[in-house]
Design a protein that fits this description.
single chain; mainly beta; hypothetical protein yedk fold; 8-stranded mixed β-sheet; 5-stranded antiparallel β-sheet; 5 helices; globular
């Protein structure tokens, strides 16, 4: 999956019946999260929903990209496919599950001309909000760069990928995110035992749940993001 997605948190006000509050509505944007329309890249902040210690859902600000296996140099991994890997096994339980809200995600066309990658954005037809099946953890270390180190404790997230559906496959055949559409699917993801993660991962979103965003409209997803 391309490492770039959009999360328009103004749409979260539509979810008040489920989450019980509308702090991210168009009139009450949570200032902790900064700008309303986020174009989220690896290692930048994104809005994430998890269960708190008392079982209630809460919004949390996390950075995108869990540390990968040491065999890969520990570089941040934004999309997880191989849940059989011992490296990810410890994160499969409900304690480390989260929902990653998004309004669009992108993929580069597999057959783009060399040196001129063509990006395509996918979004729900009603331009509402859907959710990636995410995993998170706290991690202590340097999450910066050689030029700008960022040593400390960080809350990090990634999300699962699965087979591409019929809409995504012609653009990017390798994979697409595991997307949770219905409320029941979101609740199941947050509570299911670890041995059912593979079953949930294998469910590919129906093609009609997404559409390719026209180029002129896709321009809205390119803009500021939380550093």
């Amino acid at each position: 999956m391309c490492n770039r997605y959009a999360s328009d948190i103004r749409k979260a006000g539509k979810e008040k019946d489920y989450y019980g509050f509308d702090e991210w509505s168009e009139t009450r944007i949570n200032p902790v999260l900064g700008n309303a329309v986020l174009e989220i890249f690896p290692k930048s902040f994104g809005p994430v929903i998890r269960k708190s210690d008392n079982g209630a859902l809460e919004w949390v600000k996390m950075r995108w990209g869990l540390p990968g296996p040491s065999s890969m140099g520990g570089a941040p991994v934004t999309n997880i496919r191989n849940i059989a890997s011992p490296h990810w096994r410890a994160l499969l339980g409900p304690t480390n599950r989260c929902l990653v809200p998004f309004t669009a995600f992108s993929e580069y066309e597999d057959d783009s001309p060399k040196g001129a990658k063509v990006i395509r954005w996918f979004a729900p037809p009603d331009r509402g909000m859907l959710y990636f099946a995410g995993m998170w953890r706290t991690w202590r270390g340097d999450y910066g760069s050689k030029k700008e180190p960022n040593v400390g404790e960080h809350r990090l997230f990634s999300f699962l990928t699965t087979e591409a559906n019929d809409l995504v496959r012609p653009v990017h055949a390798k994979a697409m995110p595991v997307i949770l559409r219905a409320e029941a699917d979101r609740e199941e993801w947050l509570a299911a035992p670890a041995d059912r993660v593979g079953e949930i991962q294998a469910r590919v979103l129906a093609s009609e749940a997404l559409e390719i965003v026209p180029d002129d409209e896709a321009a809205q997803y390119v803009g500021g993001y939380i550093k």
